[in-house]
């Protein structure tokens, strides 16, 4: 293994990929496996360069001074072209400056005139020797050669007549007496291609995940068991008459009572019913963001249609007196069935990812550690034909299932407490969360730009989160209210509704602002927005909601989560677990986004942080 030549922190001259230009850079790190230096340019751009593309500043300056003088051969060639034997003596007595100007004019005129004459002659020959069929027939009847014979003859004539011009053309090629604009354009196109190829090679060489999240291998191994245990703990606590922390731990039911084959069959039926709705040829088809290889995947946007069809199916079941509170009676068994299915799905996803090509692997789940890649997801977009497993699970079975579970809790409350109408608290919880789900499905296309789709692989983390955590933890308030009813007054309900409306307005308007700007920054409707340009070509908004805090959508999320919990009262902290969890989750995501954006945008992100100092909570954090 060769010794590294440049140390971390050393300021050197780095060649820009695809060009001969060197710029001042700072060495930040060195990869022993790929033998590449990671360097940082003055504008914050970070690239991986070979050692041969890096020079010390002293040697670069010495080389530059040598290359500034012309070679002897070029000087002699220049002198031989500047003086013609046939020129009169008077012309030789002209000043050197006038001679140089005349020489430059001749360089411009000769090639342009020769090229123009060449093109004109070719066009004239093509015009005279490319007659219509009727003229060919007339000449054939008059004893003249037909078009085939004439083409053979004319090609020889053209070749003889244009031979001097073709030699001039070849000489122009040899001495590069082309228009400087054409040469510059070709150089720019070639340079862009070389930069793109170099960046692709660099990405491929450094495709391994180096920075591990969630505590690395040990942390992800722990979470595989801790997350299911947390779900079961929350559900068991809600089933108690007094779900306070003083009654921890809750009584553990017998293991055989947690599994029911009939419940598992119902869960499978639900999953595959949503898969059928997903495959229906309704809704538009859009393209996602470009992948590392430049390819764009296609997605069918029909989540809202699937929700409408699901609502029609549930309505039909209720019409035929189907007891939907069956979900409440077997809630724990449904959670166990969903957890078992998500684990089986995660194992399948990891096994199939071992045969996936390198370009299809997730940038955050390609560490080489089995447990870590299994948890975070090894493959970015696993598909069975055109069926995208990650995109399907992101919005369909879990998110729509959340609404169905809430409805089942509402009906269970009415049956258990003998109510003709659901309580006001249960109505608020159902209404607020229904709005959230419908909004997500109506704006389904926006999910294609989220980190879940563009960065995270599909492994246990997302599979368990989509199929277990979302439907069974997000419905915790409704589940809690069934066993612990709360009476609230209309003024209190109105205040909570206003709070939820404020959170939803911030959440939706901030996301819409960001998505519209990403799709078309030049939209006249967005002309009022100001942004900081970055080296990637994207802009960082510094006005509107994104000039208020760095993550206004997270702020709206937290306000809504609080509004969902307030109808449960303050007797126990359990209904507010969702708020605490949501704050912790968003703070983690915010820290990950900060790290990702700082690495991606460099100095532009530092300027943005100076303009927008608060992350989520204004004047607090």
UniProtKB/TrEMBL annotation:
EC number: 1.3.1.70
Low complexity biased stretches: 66-75
Sequence ranges assigned to domain Tudor in this UniProt record: 4-62
GO molecular function: Delta14-sterol reductase activity; DNA binding
Annotated Basic residues bias: 76-97
Family membership noted in the UniProt record: Belongs to the ERG4/ERG24 family.
Pathway where it operates: Steroid biosynthesis; cholesterol biosynthesis
Keyword Signal set for record: no
Gene of this entry: Lbr
Biased composition (Basic and acidic residues): 98-108, 137-157
Organism the protein comes from: Penelope pileata
Its membrane topology: Multi-pass membrane protein
Transmembrane segments: 218-237, 257-280, 301-320, 332-351, 462-482, 488-507, 528-549, 569-588
GO cellular component terms listed in the entry, alphabetical order: endoplasmic reticulum membrane; nuclear inner membrane
Name the UniProt record assigns to this protein: Delta(14)-sterol reductase LBR
Subcellular location: Cytoplasm; Endoplasmic reticulum membrane; Nucleus inner membrane
Listed GO biological process terms: cholesterol biosynthetic process
Keyword Disulfide bond: no
């Amino acid at each position: 293994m060769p010794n590294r030549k440049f140390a971390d922190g050393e300021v050197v001259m780095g060649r820009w990929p695809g060009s001969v230009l060197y710029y001042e850079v700072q060495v930040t790190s060195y990869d022993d496996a790929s033998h590449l230096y990671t360097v940082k340019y003055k504008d914050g751009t970070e690239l991986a360069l070979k050692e041969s593309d890096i020079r010390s500043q002293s040697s670069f300056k010495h080389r530059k001074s040598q290359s500034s003088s012309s070679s002897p051969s070029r000087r002699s060639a220049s002198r031989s072209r500047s003086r013609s034997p046939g020129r009169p003596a008077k012309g030789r007595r002209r000043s050197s400056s006038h001679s140089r100007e005349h020489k430059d004019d001749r360089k411009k005129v000769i090639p342009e005139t020769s090229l123009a004459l060449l093109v004109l002659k070719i066009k004239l020959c093509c015009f005279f020797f490319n007659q219509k069929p009727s003229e060919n027939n007339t000449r054939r009847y008059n004893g003249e050669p037909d078009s085939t014979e004439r083409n053979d003859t004319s090609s020889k004539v053209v070749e003889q007549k244009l031979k001097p011009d073709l030699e001039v053309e070849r000489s122009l090629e040899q001495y590069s007496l082309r228009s400087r604009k054409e040469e510059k354009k070709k150089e720019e196109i070639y340079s862009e291609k070389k930069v793109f190829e170099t960046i692709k090679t660099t990405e491929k060489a450094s495709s391994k995940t180096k920075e591990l999240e969630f505590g690395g291998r040990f942390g992800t191994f722990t979470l595989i068991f801790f997350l299911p245990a947390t779900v079961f703990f929350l559900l068991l606590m809600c089933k108690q008459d007094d779900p306070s922390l003083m009654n921890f731990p809750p009584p553990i039911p017998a293991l055989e009572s947690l599994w029911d084959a009939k419940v598992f069959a119902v869960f499978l039926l639900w999953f595959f019913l949503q898969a059928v709705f997903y495959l229906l040829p309704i809704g538009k088809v859009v393209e996602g963001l470009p992948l590392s290889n430049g390819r764009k995947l296609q997605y069918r946007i029909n989540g809202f249609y699937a929700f409408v069809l699901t609502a029609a199916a549930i309505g039909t079941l209720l019409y035929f007196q189907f007891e939907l509170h069956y979900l409440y009676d077997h809630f724990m068994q449904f959670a166990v069935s969903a957890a078992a299915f998500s684990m089986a799905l995660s194992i399948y996803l990891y096994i199939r990812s071992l045969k996936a090509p390198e370009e299809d692997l997730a940038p955050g789940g390609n560490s080489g550690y089995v447990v870590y890649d299994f948890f975070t997801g090894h493959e970015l977009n696993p598909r069975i034909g055109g069926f995208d497993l990650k995109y399907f699970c992101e919005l369909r079975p879990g998110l729509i299932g959340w609404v169905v579970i809430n409805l089942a809790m509402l009906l269970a409350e009415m049956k258990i407490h003998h109510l003709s109408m659901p309580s006001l608290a249960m109505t608020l919880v159902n209404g607020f969360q229904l709005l959230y789900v419908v909004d997500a499905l109506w704006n389904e296309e926006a999910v294609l730009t989220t980190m879940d789709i563009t960065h995270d692989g599909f492994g246990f983390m997302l599979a368990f989160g989509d199929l277990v955590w979302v439907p069974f933890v997000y419905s915790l308030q409704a589940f809690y209210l069934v066993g612990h009813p709360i009476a609230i007054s209309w003024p209190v309900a109105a205040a909570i509704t206003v709070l939820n409306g404020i959170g939803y307005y911030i959440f939706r308007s901030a996301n819409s602002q960001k998505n519209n700007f990403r799709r078309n920054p030049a939209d006249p409707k967005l002309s009022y927005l100001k942004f900081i340009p970055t080296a990637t070509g994207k802009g960082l908004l510094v006005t509107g909601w994104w000039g208020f805090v760095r993550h206004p959508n997270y702020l709206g999320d937290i306000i809504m989560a609080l509004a969902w919990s307030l109808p449960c009262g303050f007797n126990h902290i359990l209904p507010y677990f969702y708020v605490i969890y949501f704050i912790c989750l968003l703070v983690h995501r915010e820290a990950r986004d900060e790290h990702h954006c700082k690495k991606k945008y460099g100095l532009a992100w530092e300027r943005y942080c100076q303009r927008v100092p608060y992350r989520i909570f204004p004047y607090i954090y």
